[in-house]
Please model this.
Amino acid sequence: MKKLSFFLKIVFIAFLTISIYLISPSTVYAQNATLYFSPSSATVSSGQTVTVTVMVNTGEDDISGVTADFTYSSSLIEYVSTDSTNSDFSIEAEEDHVTGTVYLSRAVSGGDSFNGIGEIAQVTFRGSSNGTATLSFTDDALVTSSGDTPTDVLGTTTNGTITVGSSSGVPATGIFDKPVVIAIGIGAILLICIGSIAVIQYAKDRKYKLNNV
Model:
């Protein structure tokens, strides 16, 4: 009888422990956050500047900070500056740059959190050589959840591109790159002009003949 009573106590304690574990409230964060560039693709003439905005979408999670380090094609574009004036994350943890990599880490003020789509910083580049430069988030990128146990909720990153074209006044691609098209167009215009002149001259000659009959 005592053995049965002891066994029942063990079962009861085990059941109670499992129930407390299952019932206890806990916050579960899904990795739904996204880091991306806006615009996702941009164009710039060689020697001119273009600005892209580094953005975060928290995916409905409350977050306290972000690390959005990314690399860029330094052979095609040059880093100019980083502007966090309009950032939704007021505290600067890191804002640095070395050739080919931009370092961005920012956080909200103590005790606060951010939820939704927000701006991290604006980064300006200058086109240096024709081609398509890639902006790629590094493996160090993360989005930190708020709360007592911060968790990385970054799910996906979307890279961006900057296409550097000709710095002349004509487009880098298009009709000005197609001399055959230009020649045909000029030829057509000349034929129209010659035809118009011939018609006018014919009309004048006919009128002259009629007047002298």
User: Anything to note?
Assistant: Residues 1-27, 169-177 have pLDDT under 50 and may be disordered. The first strand starts at residue 33 and ends at 38. Residues 33-165 form a domain with the Immunoglobulin-like fold (CATH 2.60.40.680). Residues 80 and 125 are 5 Å apart (CA to CA).
